[in-house]
Write a structure and sequence with these properties.
- The chain is an alpha+beta fold and 331 residues long.
- It folds into two domains: 120 residues, no CATH class; 156 residues, Jelly Rolls (Sandwich).
- Helix content is 19%, strand content 39%.
- It contains two helices and 23 strands.
- The strands form five sheets. Strands 7, 9, 10, 11, 13, 15 and 16 form a seven-stranded antiparallel beta sheet that branches.
- A hairpin with an 8-residue loop joins strand 3 and strand 4.
- The protein is elongated, with a radius of gyration of 30 Å.
């Protein structure tokens, strides 16, 4: 006969089925908690990305529009044209001109040259540069000197070629642009993909009449860095070679490279360049469109896109937003 106490001892503890059930319940609970906390972390990263892009974009747009409203005139781009930089005349002399543009990887020589070229009209003047980053180029820039001819001989064009020893392959060229003296002139092209380490030629031509018309600034470069060849303004050969020079023209292009900090910067008068956005974000597609109508002080439409950088390609929320607004100069 089995005593009652012995029967109770045999019934204590868990059966295998009960143990498996408890393990399954604990596993489900842990899985639910892990998913819950993971969702919270993803939501926090997403909210942080959206907040940072929205805040930076809004603050930048407010600064740009307020500066335009306080300005007295628009120097560049001229009425009816658009470009990646904006030059304003402002009431405070020490802050004029105020220039906004996009800072990033540069292909070319973006500094004011020390010497003014002569007889550049109906000549292709090309300077070669080695790309330091892979990305896209959509605007070419050239620094025009103090003398621009009267219309219709105040036009300029630019092109970009690839090639090591000479401009071997035409990649893209701009339409004719009305030139402005003593400023960086912008020439829009069909976007071109460039590769880090490869050589590219930035080329300028103009339709001036006199030897002093529409010329660019340059400084001493390396042997064979610049090449020129007579070419009637308005067309570009697919490939060419010319006379080599030891010079470097003030010409450049901004390279829009993914995951590369592109910041909007401002230069007030003779002051230093100041970045208006931080390096956690990338600003691209900065365009100023001069919509000024006759007998009005001026109006500028602004557009740019702010991206959240993810240089290590981590599993994070990628977010970008395009901001567009306009501002009118004070009457």
């Amino acid at each position: 006969m089995i005593k009652l106490s012995q029967a109770k001892d045999r019934q204590s503890g868990f059966t295998l089925i009960e143990l498996l059930l408890y393990v399954a319940l604990v596993g489900m609970l842990l899985t639910s908690l892990t998913y819950f906390f993971g969702t919270m972390v993803d939501s926090r990263v997403k909210d942080q990305s959206i907040l940072e892009v929205n805040e930076q974009g809004t603050v930048l747009m407010d600064y740009l529009t307020q500066t335009i409203r306080n300005a007295t005139s628009i120097t560049s781009p001229t009425a009816g044209l658009s470009g990646p930089s904006l030059t304003l005349v402002v009431p405070t002399g020490g802050l004029s001109p105020t220039i906004f543009n996009l800072n990033g990887t540069t292909l070319g020589y973006s500094t004011t040259g020390t010497t003014l070229d002569t007889a550049g009209s109906n000549f292709m003047n090309a300077t070669k540069f080695v790309a330091s980053a892979t990305g896209t180029v959509s605007t070419l820039n050239a620094l025009v000197g103090p003398t621009v001819a009267a219309s219709p001989n105040n036009k300029g064009q630019m092109a970009i070629y690839s090639g090591t020893a000479s401009p071997t392959t035409l990649l893209a060229s701009s339409a004719s642009t009305t030139l402005i003296a003593n400023v960086w002139n912008d020439f829009n092209i069909t976007p071109v993909n460039i590769t880090s380490g490869q050589t590219y030629w930035l080329v300028y031509n103009t339709n001036g009449l006199a030897s002093a018309d529409n010329d660019l600034l340059y400084h001493t470069g390396t042997a064979g860095q610049t090449m020129f060849l007579a070419q009637t303004f308005g067309s570009w050969p697919a490939s060419w070679t010319g006379t080599a020079q030891t010079a470097e023209f003030s010409m450049y292009a901004m390279v829009d490279a993914a995951n590369t900090p592109g910041t909007v910067q401002v230069k007030e008068g003779a002051g230093a360049l100041v970045s208006l956005t931080n390096n956690k974000l990338r600003v691209s597609g900065l365009v100023f469109n001069n919509l000024t109508r006759p007998a009005t002080p001026g109006i500028v439409q602004i557009s740019f896109t702010v991206w959240r950088l993810n240089p290590n390609n981590r599993n994070e929320y990628d977010y970008a937003k395009t901001f567009t607004s306009s501002a009118e100069l004070a009457w």
